[in-house]
């Protein structure tokens, strides 16, 4: 079974180090790992470093992979595409990348299965330049899945999707991780998704790993206060799944340079 472990990993753009000293336990095939943290914390940079797209110190240890050189796939946050290809062609191209160009029944079967599972069979022959943002994100996800990676890095893969699609995609990803023995690392801003769909959570802040462990142990009111400067509770919903409820933004959390202002308690109604 595949496993991935990060050892003192760092990454830089030019000379500037943006991620440093990231060391994790081994994550095993079948596990979903959420990567959370504020804007500009270094989540995408970390993913690019793991995928070998950036240089830096430290090591990525992948053991037991089936796919050798193609073991790790990275789905970037920005999925815009200009190529004049249909969705189907782009997925076929992704499937055959780095292998022989002959197309077999297994290739076609995997593509059909993925299109169906992601609910995009109806747009298979649309040009990818003509898709909506959400459709493009699903097509991009399909391109990754047909490559059968051992480790899949997904950078905010549900950011353009409507509510039901978000839940469907994350449910599917978790079942696929289990069924294919794949490790899935997902950068997420929705902490309720992290609580519901991930086994482990890594928290990145200012380019450093400040917490890593079982998601329900890591995502706590104290952590949310420290990292996001919010006063929050974690309450179990009727199905027993933890939900983050943000009561307030701490004064320290002013983000836009205007300082925190308490919410307005009344609205001005124009006189008739
Ligand atoms: N190509 C680049 N050259 C120089 N600096 C970059 C480059 N790309 C990103 N950065 C910087 O690296 C830092 C981390 O960015 P990164 O995209 O990894 O953050 P993130 O945690 O993924 O943020 P977000 O949640 O907003 O997507 C930021 O300060 C960003 O400005």
UniProtKB/TrEMBL annotation:
CDD domains (alphabetical): ABC_Iron-Siderophores_B12_Hemin
Pfam families listed in its UniProt record: ABC_tran
Keyword Phosphoprotein assigned: no
Gene Ontology molecular function: ATP binding
ATP-binding recorded as keyword: yes
Keyword annotations: ATP-binding, Nucleotide-binding, Transport
Domain ABC transporter: 4-231
SUPFAM superfamilies hit by this protein: P-loop containing nucleoside triphosphate hydrolases (SSF52540)
Name of the protein described by the UniProt record: ABC transporter ATP-binding protein
Annotated source species: Litchfieldella rifensis
Lineage summary: Bacteria, Pseudomonadati, Pseudomonadota, Gammaproteobacteria, Oceanospirillales
